[in-house]
Design brief:
Blueprint lengths: L7 H8 L15 H8 L4 E5 L5 H20 L7 H8 L9 E5 L2 H18 L4 H4 L11 H4 L17 E4 H11 L15 H4 L5 H10 L3 H8 L5 H4 L4 H12 L3 H5 L7 H6 L10 H21 L4 H14 L9 E4 L7 H5 L12 E5 L13 H13 L2 H4 L13 E4 L7 H17 L30 H6 L12
Helix pairs in contact: 2-3, 3-4, 3-5, 13-16
Length: 479
């Protein structure tokens, strides 16, 4: 059961609707989530599935919207600390908040939730400006973002808070800078004006056929590599090393061409967080070199190539799009370090403007590999202490980085399932000690028995076999 305190906020929410529609009550957050929401500094949130990471982010965003709305209305009841934090953002008519996630499905759900919350913050008047999101096919990004332009130049105020996928973020950043990355791939079948338009059906088809993701790498590239190099290696491991370390790691950001040299990559085996030997790294690097030649010959690219080009252009030209007041990055475990480094150009309020959230035990994208300590290192070295900001900072602020918040109370799952999942996590800690962050075990307020494990044959789906294909089954993880 859920219990709600009949606070003034809930009463106002119930009274805010004048059209007789059913209203969703706002979430009642846990003490852990409230600590995250009221934290003023940039922060890092890690927790397993169902512990309320996304809820904490959306409520934090919503609170900023409330403060801004009250400040614009000339409300004098705001506490001093809140007013100080809001003052910079309220100088203009809009507070620019950017929420980025990897999954289109999660993005769609968050957009709906944020729209509900924004109506609440504006006393119900927001619905007159923009109607609720239509029930579109949220798996199609071009449908979900058909009304959002392909650059960060002068985004209409009504579009904030801006909730987009990371793919859409990259396309908008590419459209903000000169010389689009995709102009080099232009062929006769795609008109030049459509090449810069991510909403174009022709462009989307072009993008899908030219991008090398893990599926293309394993099926079309892997069989053509030297079998003497690949026989003791796994395609997923090699693709992860290429995307997350050789072309997307912390060292790659600093490399002149955005890629680690063979010498620097092999040296990674000396680190405490590595379980790949030097000989294996030498083999992986040879495969990487063959892969780059084949990819270039095919006229194809991978997401790391796109990001490297964006980094190069940002070094040589100033970002002139909208500056964000606050940036929330969910599902951060599915992004590489070089991808995360792009956000530093979007927000000047580094100390307060960023929230990173995710779970390294729950990865959706193939080819990404890191722990939250890597993000803190990136944040400290590439955002807080970038060359442009060093001269603006004083010594006493050095090292003041928010701790990683661990969410441990699970709101979706009962204790029996959590005990089983924790036993699997313990095995990962034991046999793959560098692969995921070590967290305290999760707890639940609901008791339950251990679940039954459904075994399936080699080529069958256990869920569909037992329950039928109703069309509502959602895929999980990298599959």
């Amino acid at each position: 059961m859920k219990f709600y305190s009949l606070s003034s906020g809930v009463v106002n929410h119930l009274l805010s609707d004048r059209e007789g529609r059913e209203l969703d009550l706002p979430f009642e957050v846990t003490d852990q989530e409230m600590e995250i929401i009221i934290q003023h500094r940039s922060s890092f949130i890690v927790g397993r599935s169902g512990t309320g990471k996304t809820t904490g982010l959306t409520m934090k965003l919503f609170q900023k919207e409330q403060w801004h709305h009250l400040a614009l209305q000339g409300c004098s009841v705001i506490e001093n600390s809140t007013a100080e934090q809001s003052s910079a953002a309220t100088e203009g008519k809009v507070i620019r908040q950017l929420f980025v996630t990897v999954s289109p499905k999660l993005c769609f759900a968050i957009k709906q939730h944020v729209t509900h919350l924004k109506r609440f913050a504006c006393g119900g008047s927001h619905s007159a400006q923009r109607s609720l999101i239509d029930m579109i096919d949220f798996d199609e990004e071009e449908s979900q973002f058909k009304d959002i332009q392909d650059s960060f130049h002068d985004i209409p105020p009504s579009y904030y808070p801006l909730v987009i996928t990371f793919h859409k973020f990259l396309m908008m950043l590419d459209g903000t800078l000169s010389n689009s990355y995709f102009s080099r791939f232009q062929d006769a079948s795609i008109p030049h004006d459509q090449l810069r338009n991510s909403r174009s059906v022709a462009f989307q088809a072009f993008f899908r056929t030219k991008e090398v993701n893990y599926e293309q790498f394993s099926s079309l590239y892997w069989p053509h590599f030297n079998t003497q190099l690949t026989k003791n290696l796994d395609a997923a491991c090699v693709f992860t090393e290429i995307i997350s370390h050789i072309k997307g790691g912390l060292g790659a950001i600093e490399a002149c061409d955005g890629k680690l040299s063979q010498e620097d990559y092999v040296k990674l085996s000396e680190g405490r967080s590595s379980d790949i030997t030097k000989p294996k790294r030498e083999q992986i690097y040879e495969i990487f070199q063959d892969y780059e030649k084949m990819k270039m010959g095919n006229g194809e690219f991978d997401m790391a190539d796109f990001v490297i080009d964006l980094q190069r252009r940002l070094k040589h030209e100033k970002y002139v799009g909208d500056q964000m007041d606050f940036i929330y990055i969910d599902e951060v475990k599915d992004l590489t370090m070089s991808q995360l480094a792009l956000f530093k150009h979007m927000c000047n309020t580094v100390d307060e403007g960023f929230v990173f959230s995710g779970d390294t035990a729950q990865t959706i994208a193939r080819g990404t590999d890191f722990r939250f300590q890597d993000i803190r290192h990136l944040f400290y070295k590439n955002l807080c202490w970038s060359q442009e900001l060093i001269s603006m900072r004083i010594e006493k602020t050095k090292g003041q980085i928010s701790e990683v918040y661990h969410l441990t109370q699970n709101i979706h799952t009962h204790a029996g399932i959590l005990k089983l999942s924790q036993s699997i996590i313990e095995l990962i800690y034991r046999f793959f000690p560098f692969s995921i962050d070590v967290l305290k075990p999760e707890s639940s307020l609901i008791y339950g028995e251990a679940p039954v494990v459904l075994e399936s044959g080699e080529n069958e789906n256990a869920i569909i076999k037992r329950f039928g294909n109703s069309g509502n089954i959602v895929g999980f993880g990298a599959e």
